[in-house]
RING-type domain-containing protein
Amino acid sequence: SSIESKTSETPVNTANQLNSNYNGREIGFNARNKDNIDLKYCCRLCLFILRNPVQLSCGHRQCKSCVDSIQGEIIKCPECQEASIKKEVLPDRAFKKDMQTLAIECYLCDWSGSLKDYEDHLQQFHSNPICEYCGIQFNSVNTLDIHKLNNCEKRVIFCTLKDFGCSDPIVCVEMRNHYKTRQHHNAIMKLVGRIMRTASTKQYERPLEMEIDTYPHSTTMTIPPIDDDLKAKVQEIYETINMFAHGFEILDDDAQRLSNELVNINNTLTTSSKDMTTLQLSIEEENSFLNGQKLNYEILSQDVASLKQKVEDMQFTSYDGMFIWKITNFNEKMEYTI
């Protein structure tokens, strides 16, 4: 690859192996001041303070339970990549004794003290801790730490490139989406630019180091001295990233345009929906009016049929050849004629 690092594919695979093998095992101690403790006292696999430290053949130390969780008989050190045979890894009792005086701040309460008293404190006062991210309760601090290390989808973490612009906390399950954002791509460009400046100034006395969160575990990436050939490759990578960044801007503009069009379509649909509602009410009113007219028509039809029947009945009435009619004020009219 163009950028060599101390964290090759093997440690990442090791971390993946740990994911499925941590259950039922103890991992290191978590503490509120963990980031302020010397890295030599921290396990580079679980990223916590060493619990029952063992020493690899290279001299670096890991938690015994973390080493036991790794599948296979060969262990590669996450820091230097040197291989060790698992059965030759021995407990470092002297180092463990030196660690007992470490100042520890409990991450679950305000307690502070030495490491030698920390485990007793956790067992006595935090026997059923609750995950602050998802609210699930556990039967020990160790199972809580394993949950937050591997399984809690609601835990808040920081991007690998937080020192290069990705400084916002991110919910664990949203990390993949974060990798697609312009913010993350700009941070990558800043990182590559820093590598280029390091190469151009020839400042090789101290390798450039940064913390890398290889989800769900974190590890350290070291950028070694860069020769001319590697510098050319980095330049090629930088140009490729620029090309992708330009393409990302185009896609972002297209996405914005489509978003605006979608808003317009939604507005049109909203207006059309209102018009449809008005039209539906109008149709319902028309139907109601027509139903009323239909009822009136039926009544009139019945009246017409009744009148028609009366006329027909009158046409067939017999009075034996005599006409009968009614004369009003008959007496007055008779006197007038006499």
About this structure: Residues 252-312 form one domain. The chain is about 50% helix and 10% strand. The CA atoms of residues 297 and 303 lie 10 Å apart.
